[in-house]
Please model this.
Amino acid sequence: MSKTDELQKVKDEVVGITSDLAAFRREHAYLPVIGEGSSNASIMFIGEAPGENEAKQGRPFVGRSGQFLNELLESVGIPREEVYITNIVKDRPPKNRDPKTDEIELYAPFLDRQIEIIKPKVIATLGRFSMAYIMNRYGLSSMTGPISKLHGQVFNTEIAGEKVKIVPLYHPAVALYNPGSKEELQKDFEIIQTII
Model:
């Protein structure tokens, strides 16, 4: 089965899932947000959960946070279409609230499969929920801490026998509420550029 077929299978399963968030999706005629980009991407960006714009379009990071993410990618010469962008939780939580632990547990196996299919060399987590999940999932739990201390650092691990670098990043939305953090995010993206 090709990577595209395997990713389609993940999508089909998410579309058919039964959960409170999936019920909320159907009730509001939203779409699940599976992920997009190259199935051969060297870099995978993982956010927390889609917002309203994303749920309306079925695409990750298309709102204001997504526009800033695009700017950051462009600033380091990484075309968006060459990376893969997704979230842990594939359905929008009401009122853009943080994902709950049980929601992360329900949707995380889909993310795990996306990682196994795409086999990225670098996983950049966007925000504290995705950072915590990825660090714990891939053997780095002893190194976890607040995102304010870990952002921009590079952690080495192995996934399915392949060497992978994990880079925690602030969520791009942080820069929308705290313009002073834009510069930090910019520096962190420059770090990603040096390790690919």
